[in-house]
Amino acid sequence: MSRSLRPLVATAVIFAIAYALAVMQFPSMFSTRVLGNFLTDNAFLGITAVGMTFVIISGGIDLSVGAVIGFTGVLVAVLIAWAGWHPLAAFALALAVAASFGAGMGLAVHYLQVPAFIVTLAGMFLARGGASVITQDSVPVNHEFYDWISDLIIRLPGGGRLSFIGLLMVAVFIIGALVAHRTRFGSYVYALGGNPVSASLMGVPVARTTVGVYMVSSTLAALAGIVFSLYTSAGYPLAAVGVELDAISAVVIGGTLLTGGYGFVLGTFIGVMLLGLVQTYIIFDGSLSSWWTKIVIGALLFLFIVLQRLIFAASTQGEKAS
Amino acid sequence: MTRRLLSRLANPQLLALLGVLLINWLLFPNFFRITWQDGRLFGSLIDVLNRGAPVAILAIGMVGVIATKGVDLSVGAVMAMAGAVAATLVVAGYPAPVAVAAALAVGLACGLWNGFLVAVLDIQPIVATLVLMVAGRGIAQLITEGFIVTFTDPVLIFIGTGSFLGFPMAAVIALALLVLVTLLVRKTALGLFIEAVGVNRAAASLAGIRSRMLLLYVYGQSGVCAAIAGIIVAGDIRGADANNAGLWLELDAILAVVIGGTSLLGGRFSVPLAVLGALIIQAMNTGILVSGFPPEFNLIVKAALIFLVLIIQSPLASRIMPTRMPVREASK
């Protein structure tokens, strides 16, 4: 087994053990119905987390994704419900707006040379404020296109359903993994996260890659916003508050190093599923209150960070004096 | 001497605050009117001081952390936890001083935990404090069992809403902390050590600075400041709301510190200017409210402000306009 795959394997093993324990307690959790709902309920989080994986591998962070989800939801809902646009046209506009938004943040990160978290923090304020300025209410969307999409279901034996948005998330993960590991852009992102100075000396177009990474993140966040709008049939400016934290948690749990340069898109998938498992378990249990979700996610985050430290302390000993 | 004092006063932050206040005055002519009523001062300016105090207190703690090239994302969650502890204890019949001490101890413990992760386990500050940011609010809800714990304890309520010499208690506490921390970092070598660790931790360690203890100290200080802010906010609403107390205030605190000219790349910081930054943010908030604009504009104005500060601070700008303060090349 390749040494560099260890964190991925660790995450997968922990997910398998956690799922096995949950199934032992609630046998009905092992069903196509629960698995199908896993995909549907976490679709928007998963799509966001793919973009976040790219940002974090490049050595940055994007705090604006939750706000972009909220903004996209409102924009799409307003265009469809108030302006009478066709949903597909509204989706296209929302994706374009988000892509230019991400490009702006990428430009700021590269040319102002400031930490990404403060730039994307400003982006978060901007997107959340923009959504609230458009409307402060929840805007419902009633369109036959939405009904048509929600009827697109593959039924599985055992009562499970694979929804369109669940499959969309899986597709985004597969494309994301291919882009990360099989394209030139993907290698640039890894190089940039590993060491920006040597990356630029080796001829990696640092500016273009940085802008590209934040464009990918914002565009995927907008796609997640569209999925969220399909999922809830409404747009609300305060939707998806705090999703950036869940996405970052999923990425870290999936074995991606927050210092950049190292990580897996597929690991993020397991991370998202693990977060979903925690939530599903707490719903199944019934007696545990919802705040346990946060505590367990915090504990998992801690566990995986320490695990990463241990694995990497062994391989890069003496590199850092403290 | 007077010239030095004048050039010190004419810093961009103070001018910005005056500018914001002036705009507020143009939009709302009664902005500067202060009245004396029931033994305390009333008016929009006093309101700025009172409402700005929690963020100012958070910023006082955050300055030290950011000066070491770190960041503390958990302060909002720590506020919620401290408020929850104080409220639950007074409701359970403990005297207020015990409740306050316990809340401060919780803040210190949280800060030391963050410091332990950063200093000993060598985890990046954003991630290390993210753990408590996610889990802390859950723990706060665990303490209050999901309810908003309301209390009638006069001491806690006084901390949140009382007044001292006519000034709101929260502002007085913030001022006392400001003086204390400024003296601590500027009249001892502590500030120098913090800056040394922020510039280059390895070099500072080699020069004999105990950087681990120092990091534990700055994160501990940030935790205690967050706990104080948490007690004030709980006293203000006479209850501990685990869900909303201090929500997103960590971002305001970071913003205040950045406006105050503290470099996010570490090594340069100012406690009074960070407090001034908090007051600028609050003056804008109050201005938007009293002049009748929808409060949502706040976020957009804040975003514009961040970009403005970033552009001024960036190496690009310093190449175009050489300033008296040498800006280190970003080492990214």
From TrEMBL, chain A:
GO CC annotation: plasma membrane
Compartment annotation: Cell membrane
One term of GO molecular function: transmembrane transporter activity
Entries under InterPro entries matching the protein: ABC_transp_permease
Keyword annotations of the record: Cell membrane, Membrane, Transmembrane, Transmembrane helix
Record bears the keyword Membrane: yes
UniProt entry tagged with the keyword Ribosomal protein: no
Matches recorded under Pfam families: BPD_transp_2 (PF02653)
Membrane topology: Multi-pass membrane protein
Transmembrane segments: 38-57, 64-83, 89-109, 116-135, 162-180, 213-231, 238-258, 291-312
Organism domain of life: Bacteria
Protein's name according to its UniProt entry: Sugar ABC transporter permease YjfF
Source organism of this protein record: Devosia marina
UniProtKB/TrEMBL annotation, chain B:
Membrane association type: Multi-pass membrane protein
Annotated source species: Devosia marina
A Pfam cross-reference name: BPD_transp_2
Name this protein carries in UniProt: ABC transporter permease
Source taxon at top rank: Bacteria
Keyword Cell inner membrane: no
InterPro entries with a match to the protein in the record: ABC_transp_permease (IPR001851)
Record flagged with keyword ATP-binding: no
Membrane spanning stretches: 12-32, 52-68, 75-94, 100-120, 127-149, 155-185, 214-235, 247-266, 273-293, 299-318
Stored CDD domains: TM_PBP1_transp_AraH_like
Single GO MF annotation: transmembrane transporter activity
Keywords associated with the record: Cell membrane, Membrane, Transmembrane, Transmembrane helix
GO (cellular component) term, any one: plasma membrane
Subcellular location: Cell membrane
Main location: membrane
Coiled-coil zones: none
